[in-house]
Amino acid sequence: MTQHVVARTAEIPPGERVIVEVEGRQVGVFNVDGEYVAFLHRCPHMGGPLCEGQVIGLVESSGPGDVRLDDGRKFLTCPLHGWEFDVHTGQSYFDPKRVRARRYPVEVRSGADMVPGPYTAETFDVVVDSDYVIVETGRREKRRRNEHQDGERGASS
Ligand code: FES
């Protein structure tokens, strides 16, 4: 399985989402109460823009006058026809045995733990000598030597 860095955690605060493109697919990455979850941005019902929907708690009722909000169970609601999908399993609330939204595993890693990339910037050794900061490069030393030799030639002619 290929992993992709899609955002910094600071870019997705609790209650927010980003929709990114990964391997040609649009994927919504959500921060649900500090937990990151990811869904394919395509509803399994009729292909609606699932990840543009609201994340809401489960509303239950045993009958008229009885409405309870279970904020411990969260659902992603498709904006097209309102189908709801459990953010932890992807299962449809309407038909949990047959319909499921496509989820992707998400993990958070420290930048220090990331595998270094293949590209490396050119670096130079730096020496602090008394009041001067000196950056060492081969070119400058060569140029200085050439200037010194030119000076000697000028003095001898
Ligand atoms: S397309 Fe999502 S509920 Fe119909």
Shape: elongated
Q: What does the average pLDDT come to?
A: 86
Q: Can you count the helices?
A: 1
- Report the structural category: mainly beta
Rounded Rg: 29 Å
| Beta-strand percentage range | 25-35%
The CATH superfamily of the largest domain turns out to be Rieske [2Fe-2S] iron-sulphur domain
Unreliably modeled segments? none
Helix and strand element order = EEEEEEEEEH
Query: What number of domains?
Result: 2
Query: What about the largest sheet?
Result: 4 strands, antiparallel
Strand order of the largest sheet: 1-2-3-7
* CATH architecture assignment of the largest domain: 3-layer Sandwich
Compounds present?
FE2/S2 (inorganic) cluster
Terminal CA distance reads 72 Å
| Helical fraction | 10-25%
Determine the CATH topology of the largest domain: Rieske Iron-sulfur Protein
Describe this structure in words.
The structure is a single chain. The protein is mainly beta. It is 12% helix and 34% strand. It has two domains: 9-110, Rieske Iron-sulfur Protein; 126-156, no CATH class. It has one helix and nine strands; from the N terminus they run βββββββββα. The strands form three sheets. A four-stranded antiparallel beta sheet has the order 1-2-3-7, with no helix packed on it. A hairpin with a 2-residue loop joins strand 2 (25-32) and strand 3 (35-40). The protein is elongated. Bound molecules: FE2/S2 (inorganic) cluster. The site of FE2/S2 (inorganic) cluster has 9 residues, from loops.
